[in-house]
Design a protein that fits this description.
Order of helices and strands: HHHHHHHHHHHHHHHHHHHHHHHHHH
Number of helices: 26
Number of strands: 0
Distance between the termini: 107 Å
Shape: globular
Structural class: mainly alpha
Helix content: 55-70%
Oligomer: single chain
Length: 717
């Protein structure tokens, strides 16, 4: 009886420890499921983003909008699961950190010059912070926060944050070799499937309704543009070639794997070649040269020769395929489908060897764009609208994410003044214009730290005792490094798009996780350090105030609700609104159902009122009504419709007063309204053309129109 009483008297703290240990078992299962959810999210982003293209009859932004929606949804899910994991830790541990955990946390926070992983992490955080600062000082904060339109995704703060979540999710939550191989395999499979769609377009087909926007001579695949498509495939091609280095000896089984690598590489090469895109070609060559230079001292000449033979064979197969399938339609022969002309080897040779026009700014549109970007970066002219913060702020923090198309018109030459230039066609210059000097420095630090990490890991892993794991880590590191280099070089003459950006950010996270996963003992101080076997006392709940515990949990809950709300309003609703707006656009214009179109576009505006594109569509429909009501007995109806069209155009302009096209449209409609006797509309027209003189000074249309309106109003310029 005394023993039983003693046993019961031992309990208060011990019982709590026993209950806590039982709770730890349950929480381990929950954590495992949370980890599976995070992995599923990044696999969806890796596979679906490069492939998805929606119906052009059901969506306006059929290519980029679904891709960025997948990225944002995946990032939102990962963030929610990470918050759930954090909340579970706080609730289970009662907000008490043990001494061993405190030591691990201090090791993480303490600068470690010997660990370049910290440099990469810090550089990635700097990119996110500088993007946030550029948004804070942006010309148009709303545009820089969410993007130029539903598909204007590349550099907005929301999109950059989504990429950052994917990066940190992969870098910190990829914990097993199986997860690593699944992610790499998913990227290669996605690239191969995209290549097959491109090859089908080469034959004049439209698989799954995905048409080539450039015909069968230059396929656009699932990216909507030949250059974007080739860049995407360049990344997956480098992964395929790099992974073939994992074959150590030639046996019946390994020859089979080499054949598979060769087939996948050949399919991707075929698609890359028929895009006729020189920038991605140069990027692919840079990646192959990097493998050829770094692989011999790491793997030996025998394995390098095997990979070289596979790559050469894949290239020869691609050329033979093009030699036997190319076709040129006869002159004056109107053909469709499989009868259209197809890219030939001579086209590829001419594209690769001809330098005609490369250095002529009248032919090569990139040269004036680069000159204009440098002019914007160095001189920082102030636009006629938006926040005017002065030269120092603009030089340091730029004009704001996604503002390049709107500020470039100020320096565009005459031949580009009537064309909307979406980017500088050079990633560093684009970042310098939009995020300023600090943004460019953060970007340079990120790529420098990634390059150093790859080279250092290739060298230091040679000394690991586990030869098999060491070799695997080196293969993965070199393959990812070649893919990142190929993308980097390609983007020096191109535009980053969501289909390839998402792969690059996840590969950056993967290259950090690979050595830790494959050679865990090489990184003893990481957050996945195995327990020492010494028992750890379970924290006492009474040691912490319940108020702190509940406040921390409530804060996490609020963050989770904010994530859900942003994901719903800025992703799901935008998809729905774009589909509704497409109905208003796709209606037969020869015999339009105006009432139905107005209802559709009004629904789209109700869902996302901050999208100027939808207000412009509303304005166009109202103008159509005005033109149909233009007879002499319907003057009042015509004037009312013109007034509606003008108000919609003004709403679009208010959302983005720097957009050249919105200004022109508002000026045109105000002048039409002025013809009904509205003097205020006439004065507004003159003011808009005065703004356009500053916004697009080289345009041949602005000066004469300003003079004509001024003459009509009796205003001397």
């Amino acid at each position: 009886m005394t023993a039983i009483r003693a046993k019961n008297q031992r309990t208060p703290r011990q019982r709590r420890n026993t209950q806590a240990l039982a709770g730890q078992t349950n929480s381990a299962e929950i954590r495992a499921w949370l980890g599976r959810g995070i992995e599923l999210a990044w696999l969806v982003a890796a596979v679906v983003t490069p492939l998805i293209v929606l119906s052009e009859t059901e969506f306006i932004a059929k290519t980029e909008l679904p891709k960025i929606a997948v990225i944002r949804l995946s990032a939102g899910l990962i963030l929610l699961l990470l918050l759930a994991e954090l909340g579970l830790s706080i609730w289970q541990r009662h907000f008490v950190i043990s001494s061993r955990q405190m030591a691990q946390l201090a090791a993480h926070l303490k600068p470690n010059r010997r660990d370049p992983r910290h440099w990469v992490m810090a550089s990635m955080a700097a990119v996110l912070i500088t993007t946030a600062l550029a948004f804070a000082f942006a010309l148009l904060p709303g545009l820089s926060m969410w993007g130029a339109d539903p598909s204007g995704d590349s550099n907005s703060l929301y999109s950059t944050a989504s990429y950052g979540v994917l990066f940190f999710g992969v870098a910190t939550r990829l914990r097993t070799p199986a997860q690593l191989w699944r992610l790499l395999g998913a990227m290669v499979i996605a690239g191969t499937l995209a290549a097959l769609i491109g090859i089908a377009q080469y034959f004049g087909e439209a698989p799954f309704g995905i048409r080539s926007t450039s015909g069968s001579v230059r396929i656009s695949g699932t990216a909507g543009n030949p250059i974007f498509f080739a860049t995407l495939l360049t990344v997956t091609l480098m992964l395929t070639i790099g992974m073939s280095l994992s074959i150590r000896e030639l046996t019946r089984k390994t020859i089979g794997w080499l054949s598979i690598y060769g087939l996948l590489a050949s399919l991707q090469m075929m698609a890359i070649l028929v895009t006729l895109s020189r920038g991605p070609w140069i990027g692919a060559i840079a990646g192959v040269l990097a493998v050829a230079a770094l692989a011999p001292p790491v793997f030996g000449w025998r394995r390098v020769a095997t990979t070289g033979a596979v790559t050469a064979a894949a290239f020869v197969v691609a050329l033979v395929f093009l030699l036997t399938t190319s076709y040129t339609a006869p002159d004056n022969f109107e053909a469709t489908g499989s009868d259209t002309s197809r890219t030939s080897v001579s086209d590829i040779r001419a594209r690769a060897t001809s330098l005609s026009g490369v250095f002529d700014s009248n032919i090569n549109g990139r040269l004036p764009r680069w000159e204009g970007a440098l002019d914007l970066a160095l001189n920082r002219p102030e636009p006629p609208a938006g926040a005017a913060l002065g030269y120092p702020i603009r030089f340091l923090f730029g004009y704001g994410p996604d503002t390049f198309p709107d500020v470039f018109t100020m320096v565009a030459p005459e031949n580009l003044s009537n064309i909307r230039t979406t980017a500088a066609h050079n990633d560093p210059l684009n970042r310098l214009v939009e995020t300023g000097l600090i943004g460019l420095l953060a970007w340079a630090a990120l790529w420098s730290s990634l390059a150093f990490f790859v080279l250092r890991n290739l060298w230091t892993s040679r000394h690991n005792a586990n030869r098999r794991n060491r070799g695997t880590s080196q293969v993965v590191t070199l393959a990812i490094g070649a893919a990142l280099l190929a993308w980097f070089v390609s983007r020096l003459t191109g535009i980053p798009k969501s289909g390839d950006i998402v792969l690059v950010w996840m590969l950056a996270g993967l290259v950090l996780a690979a050595p830790r996963v494959l050679i865990p003992r090489a990184f003893p101080s990481n957050d996945l350090e195995e327990p020492t076997g010494e028992p750890e006392t379970v924290p006492d709940a009474s040691a912490t105030s319940p108020a702190i515990r509940y406040i921390a949990t409530a804060t996490i809950g609020l963050l989770a609700l904010a994530t859900i709300w942003i994901t719903w309003t800025e992703t799901v609703q935008r998809l729905s609104a774009d589909s509704t707006a497409a109905n208003a656009v796709s209606t037969d214009l020869a015999n339009p159902n105006v009432s139905s179109r107005l209802n559709d576009i009004d629904q789209a505006i109700a869902q996302t009122a901050d999208q100027p594109r939808y207000h412009t569509i509303r304005s166009e429909i109202d103008e159509l009504i005005a033109n149909d009501s233009g007879s002499s007995d319907l003057t009042t109806a015509s004037a009312a419709a013109i007034l509606e069209a003008t108000e919609s155009a003004e709403r679009a302009l208010a959302l983005n007063p720097l957009d050249r096209d919105f200004n022109f449209r508002a000026a045109y409609l105000n002048w039409e309204l002025a013809k009904t006797g509205d003097l205020d509309a006439a004065l507004r027209t003159y003011a808009l053309y005065e703004r356009l003189v500053v916004l697009t000074p080289q345009s041949p249309d602005v000066g004469p129109r300003l003079a004509a309106v001024g003459e009509a109003l009796g205003i001397k310029p």
